[in-house]
Amino acid sequence: MSETQNIAVEFKRVMKSFGTKRVLNDVSFHIGQGQALCLLGRSGTGKSVTLKLIMALMQPDSGEVWVDQENVVGLDEQGLSHVRRKMGYLFQDAALFDSLTLYENLALPLHRLTKKPKPEIQDVVHRTLTDVGLGADGAKYPSALSGGMKKRAGLARALVLEPKILLADEPSSGLDRITASEIDELLMRCKTERGTALIIVTHDVHGARRIADRVAVLDQGNLVAFGSVDEVSQSENEVARKLITE
Ligand SMILES: Nc1ncnc2c1ncn2[C@@H]1O[C@H](COP(=O)(O)OP(=O)(O)OP(=O)(O)O)[C@@H](O)[C@H]1O
């Protein structure tokens, strides 16, 4: 397989502004299937916008955004829903329905978006909950879960449709170091056991150093460093170097 066939997400010369404020300036990078990319940068440097462009929740002003061999820029609704099915999204707040149990929260997208029969859905939900350590908690409502359990539940929700690409916005924010490490472990298992590509926005440098195959550092709209943790640690760019070695 050529390198191109293995690319999970690629930005080609992406520009994005809001009014007169340029948020992404000629940004290009790519990440392969089964690899983890951590997006680092100070607040307001375009990390969440990058995730939204990958999900095609917004469009760039120019440039291309490739997801699993498809340029999502300018796709029609049918094309977009096809390409979005390849992606799971771990929201900061887990995005669970409070009125549904954990089990029901996970079963819902399977009922809506697949033709799987009920017994298979039960199996998939149970397996996914077990994978994140919540196998015994399916009957609980989100309000009964701790912060760490909610994050794991959000991860299970993002994984239940078996996405090729998982996007995560600050998966360990608000968690203590030990619980944050547990989430990091789960993310790494997604990558190694499921071959999922991970794109993670994070301020947690400690976690990024463990998980990332590639690190991208955004600063004032520019991609100022891209490479392995070691490469970025030796970057000529001071902001990037400081961020990764802090
Ligand atoms: N829909 C929008 N309309 C106008 N401006 C926006 C919009 N979305 C983002 N921005 C602006 O784009 C810039 C980058 O925002 P983004 O949310 O990507 O930052 P971030 O790097 O994720 O920051 P943080 O680490 O604080 O979450 C900010 O100045 C923000 O105000």
Describe this structure in words.
It is built from 9 helices and 10 strands. It starts with 6 loop residues before the first strand and ends with a helix. The protein has a domain at 7-98 and 165-178 and 186-245: Rossmann fold. A hairpin with a 2-residue loop joins strand 4 and strand 5. It is 38% helix and 26% strand. The chain has 246 residues and is an alpha/beta fold. The chain has helices at 47-54, 77-84, 102-113, 118-131, 147-159, 177-194, 205-211, 229-233, 238-245, and strands at 7-18, 21-32, 36-41, 62-67, 70-71, 87-90, 165-169, 197-201, 214-219, 222-227. The strands form 2 sheets. It has a 6-stranded mixed β-sheet, with helices on both faces. The protein has a 4-stranded antiparallel β-sheet with strand order 2-1-4-5, with helices on one face. Helix 3 crosses helix 4 and helix 4 packs across helix 5 (147-159). Bound molecules: adenosine-5'-triphosphate.
Architecture blueprint of SSEs:
Blueprint (H helix, E strand, L loop, with lengths): L6 E12 L2 E12 L3 E6 L5 H8 L7 E6 L2 E2 L5 H8 L2 E4 L11 H12 L4 H14 L15 H13 L5 E5 L7 H18 L2 E5 L3 H7 L2 E6 L2 E6 L1 H5 L4 H8 L1
Parallel strand pairs: 3-8, 3-9, 6-7, 7-8
Antiparallel strand pairs: 1-2, 1-4, 4-5, 9-10
The chain binds adenosine-5'-triphosphate.
Oligomer: single chain
Strand order of the largest sheet: 6-7-8-3-9-10
Q: How many beta-strand segments?
A: 10
Overall geometry comes to: globular
User: Could you give a short account of the major beta sheet?
Assistant: 6 strands, mixed
Proportion of residues in extended strands? 25-35%
Q: What is the H level of CATH, i.e. the homologous superfamily of the domain at 7-98 and 165-178 and 186-245?
A: P-loop containing nucleotide triphosphate hydrolases
Protein name: Sulfate-transporting ATPase
Keywords: ATP-binding, Nucleotide-binding, Transport
Domain ABC transporter: 9-245
Pfam families: ABC_tran (PF00005)
